[in-house]
Design goal:
By secondary structure, this protein is of the alpha/beta class. 34% of the residues lie in helices and 21% in strands. The chain is built from 15 helices and 20 strands. It has a ten-stranded mixed beta sheet, sandwiched between helices. Helix 3 packs across helix 4 and helix 6 packs antiparallel against helix 7. The model has no long low-confidence stretch (mean pLDDT 95). The structure holds inosinic acid (IMP) and magnesium ion. The site of inosinic acid (IMP) has 21 residues, from helix 4.
Length: 420
Amino acid sequence: MGVTCVIGLQWGDEGKGKVVDGLCREADIAVRCQGGANAGHTVVVGDRTSVLHLIPSGILREEVRCMIGNGAVVDLDVLASEIEQLTGTGLRVTERLMLSERAHVVLPIHRRIEAATEEILGDMRIGTTMRGIGPAYRDKYGRFGIRVGDILSVDTLANRVRALGRVNPIAGDSPDIVEEMMAYCARHLEMLKGVCGDVEHELSLCIARDERIVLEGSQGFLLDIDFGTYPYVTSSNTGVHGLVGGAGVPVSSVDKVVGVVKSYMTRVGSGPFPTEMEEPYQSLAREAGREYGATTGRPRRCGWMDLNALRYSASHNGVTSLAVTKLDTLSCLDTVKVCTGYQHSGEVIRTLPARAILLQECVPMYENMRPLGDLAGIRRLGDLPPAATEYVDMLLRAASAGLELLSVGAGRDAVISAEH
Ligand code: IMP
Ligand code: MG
């Protein structure tokens, strides 16, 4: 027993929600550790599709307790509506959910700052989800952010909120904003009293009891604030470092790191994307894979598998096993290409360069693969067409990892597990 980290190895939307849901069959606790309502984790159970933004995907399994850790930034409006929506489907939610008092709150001012910042950046804008994530983390590290626990300390809250307004002149220093933020805090006070707790202490007790904990990553490693394609990244550490730090668990408690990799690449928003597909494959992949943002509805940019990116993400996170998702989507394409390295200034590069501008200039070197064949009904490894096996083996070799599972459809049962 111990801690399993689930990490997206691309630019998000790898299918982490479904993988976490599967791993939670054998877990006691699921934790969201970083990011906030920028995430959209889609899980299909029977004929019901749930999109989770803040609450861990483990909530869909009644026996799993769910926590939101210190490293997350929490929009309380989104949390309240997510609790209401999930409770409406018959799940017990507040009884099983604990929110860290150390987590920071995304306040109405943060969405406004973000809209103003993106506007000022013009064609240099990041193309964010507009959920206030960057400004909330900026205030956290500036040390004038509001933590969940601050809202419970009603007497000192107003002073802190006023200070937050003053240090963010870009949003306008009007009493209205302060009033709006105070009203926001007040309207969620009762909810917070019901779900707040010392998540970090609780997790240390769970580890001592040898319970199985799943840390659910959000966004992907290529969007990591340090290791991603900066500045076209999100504002948190999305890899194993962010998960451990955002849940407050010891590094030594982690015994498994599952890397989730989609069988092709996608990205939403601005930033370099060397293997972006040309038409008609761009549209074919987008339609076959329903590649539209679960949070913003934006069409996702689609691209061929990038082994440079996979090697980079897998090695920096110490991935022990791979969950390969949406193989059935790739099998809709009659041409399959894979990028095995980049060329830049006459040199071959086999990792991800640190500078986004350099990555932008890289020319992918492609290898043609055989079309994968029809995979939709397959549930056993031995029944895979040889071309699909070859494709998966290539990914495992690049990641130097074993196989966790293959996903060949949206539903819970559309999985080929490593044991079969
Ligand atoms: P932010 O996280 O809203 O600040 O957005 C920064 C970048 O990360 C933008 O390119 C977003 O499209 C991207 N991003 C943020 N969250 C997700 C996600 O959950 N899936 C995919 N892309 C995301
Ligand atoms: Mg998503």
